[in-house]
Design brief:
This protein is α+β, with helices and mostly antiparallel strands. The protein has two domains: about 240 residues, Immunoglobulin-like; about 45 residues, no CATH class. About 15% of the residues lie in helices and about 35% in strands. The strands form four sheets. Strands 2, 4, 9, 10, 12, 13 and 17 form a seven-stranded mixed beta sheet that branches. Strands 1, 3, 5, 8, 11 and 16 form a six-stranded mixed beta sheet that branches.
C-alpha cells in the first residue's frame, strides 16, 4: 500500500485543535463544561518466555457514551534494550520523472512500504476500511483506524459497550538470553501517550473536545474567539507490562528443561573438549557462582545430580 501520512489522517479525521493560551478563563470554562467518563483504553500485561522472538500487545476499548468511528493511538516503550516496535520497511522505490532531462530523484521518489504488523482478525475493527500502524521510532508506534473512508461501503462503527479487543500490535524482542541473564529488572512498560491519542464519532467529531468563547479584549469584550480543549477527565488509559521470566536456568546447559546427567556430559565436552558453550548463555554453566565455568562446576553438577548436593544458585 502507498505510504500515508498519519498526521494528515489525524487532521482530517480527528480535527484536534491546539489548546490556546487563555489563562484562568480557559480553566474556568473547562470546569464548567467537564463531561463524564467516555473512553477507557487499556493494554494487556503478560509474561514473556525468553525463547519467544517477540510478543503481541492487545489493545482494549470501552466506549461508554459515544459511538467510535475512528481513532489515533500513540504507544511508547520504556525499555529499548529489551523490545522494539517493528519498523516500517521500504519494499519498492519508484522514481517518476515527467522531465527525463531535468529529473531530480529527491523530488520524484515514491516509496511503497510494508507497515508495522497489526492484527485485527476476529477483533472489533476487523471490517474497518483503514487500519494502519506506523513505527515513528523503535519505541514509538502510531496506530490509526477509520471505520468509513470517503466513497466506500458503509462500515458500522463501534457501538457503546466493552471492553472489547480492538487489535494487537507486535513487539520484537531484541535482548539476547545472555543479556537477560545479567539483568535483575526484565520489565518493559508500554505507555499510552495521552497527548497523541484521540477518538472520533462516526461523524468525525472528536470525543471529549469542547469549544469555549473567550474574551480577547476584557473588560469590554468587543473581540471574542473560540478556543478548543480536550476534557482529560473523559478518558482513562491503562498501560501494559511485559516481564521476562528467568533468562537462563543455571545448570540446564542443554536447555532440556531439567538438570540431569546429559548436562554433565555437555559440560565435560564444553570444558575439556572445546565443545559448544551452554545453549542459553555462557553463564548458565557457572553453577557455583564463582564467575567462571570450569571443572569445579562439573563437580558441583555431579554432586547435585547423583549425591543430593545443593542445587545451582541464581547467583
Amino acid at each position: 500500500m502507498k505510504m500515508l501520512g498519519l498526521a494528515s489522517i489525524a487532521a482530517v479525521l480527528l480535527g484536534m485543535a491546539a489548546l490556546a493560551d487563555s489563562g484562568d478563563r480557559t480553566a474556568s470554562a473547562a470546569q464548567g463544561s467537564a463531561s463524564s467518563l467516555q473512553i477507557i483504553l487499556s493494554l494487556d500485561s503478560a509474561d514473556v518466555a525468553v525463547s519467544e522472538p517477540g510478543t503481541f500487545v492487545s489493545v482494549y476499548l470501552t466506549n461508554i457514551t459515544q459511538q467510535v468511528g475512528g481513532f489515533e493511538v500513540s504507544l511508547l516503550l520504556d525499555r529499548p534494550d529489551l523490545f522494539k516496535f517493528s519498523s516500517d520497511s521500504v519494499i519498492e522505490t519508484t522514481i517518476v520523472c515527467e522531465d527525463q532531462i531535468d529529473c531530480d530523484p529527491a523530488d520524484t521518489t515514491i516509496d511503497t512500504v510494508a507497515t508495522s504488523p497489526v492484527d485485527t482478525v476476529g477483533m472489533a475493527i476487523a471490517g474497518w476500511e483503514f487500519v494502519q500502524a506506523r513505527a515513528l521510532s523503535s519505541i514509538n508506534l502510531k496506530l490509526a483506524a477509520i471505520a468509513n473512508e470517503p466513497s466506500a461501503p458503509v462500515t458500522p462503527p463501534l457501538e457503546t459497550g466493552g471492553p472489547r479487543l480492538l487489535c494487537r500490535v507486535y513487539l520484537d524482542k531484541i535482548a539476547s538470553p545472555s543479556l537477560l541473564d545479567t539483568l535483575t529488572d526484565r520489565t518493559t512498560r508500554i505507555f499510552i501517550d495521552a497527548t497523541s491519542t484521540s477518538f472520533s464519532t462516526p461523524s468525525g467529531t472528536t470525543i471529549g473536545r469542547h469549544d469555549s468563547i473567550v474574551c480577547l479584549n476584557p473588560p469590554s469584550c468587543t473581540q471574542k474567539d473560540t478556543i478548543h480543549y480536550t476534557d482529560t477527565s473523559a478518558f482513562i488509559y491503562v498501560n501494559g507490562v511485559r516481564v521476562f521470566g528467568d533468562a537462563c536456568t543455571r545448570g540446564d546447559v542443554n536447555v532440556s528443561g531439567a538438570i540431569n546427567s546429559a548436562d554433565i556430559i555437555y559440560m565435560v565436552n564444553s570444558v575439556f573438549k572445546r565443545g559448544a558453550p551452554p545453549v542459553c548463555s555462557p553463564t548458565a554453566g557457572d553453577v557455583n557462582c564463582n564467575g567462571v565455568t570450569n571443572s569445579a562446576d562439573i563437580i558441583f553438577l555431579v554432586n547435585y545430580v547423583f549425591k543430593g548436593g545443593p542445587a545451582p544458585g541464581s547467583c
